[in-house]
Amino acid sequence: MLPEDERRALERIEAEISATDPTLAQRFRRPPQGWRLFFVLLAVTGACALVVGVLAGSATLTVVGLATVGVLVVDHLSRRSRA
């Protein structure tokens, strides 16, 4: 978390960019569609690796699937808390 003075400075910079270049500001507000698709495919792949690893008794595949899903969940939760 940023200190309060840095957060206010960042908000001023964001407001200034929004006023001077709305197109650029909009691009920074949401991730590109290609990345969204990538993260969805990564989540599905990780979940499949986790399930197949558990069913097949493969510790390596289970750990890879669990790590992938875990990282995506933590990333998602951190993005929600920032918004």
Compact description:
The chain has helices spanning 4-20, 22-29, 33-56, 59-82. The protein is an all-alpha fold.
Description:
- The chain is an all-alpha fold and 83 residues long.
- The chain contains four helices and no strands.
- Helix 1 crosses helix 2 and helix 3 packs antiparallel against helix 4 (59-82).
- The radius of gyration is 19 Å and the shape is elongated.
- The two termini are 12 Å apart.
List keywords for this structure.
83 residues; 4 helices; single chain; 88% helix; mainly alpha
N-to-C terminal Cα separation, in Å? 12 Å
Q: Give the strand tally.
A: 0
What is the radius of gyration computed over CA atoms, rounded to a whole number of angstroms?
Answer: 19 Å
Strand content: under 5%
Segments where pLDDT lies below 50 for 5+ residues? none
Average of the residue pLDDT scores: 86
The largest pleated sheet is described as: none
What overall geometry do the principal axes of the alpha carbons give? elongated
H/E element sequence: HHHH
* Helical percentage: over 70%
Structural class: mainly alpha
Per DSSP, the total helix count is: 4
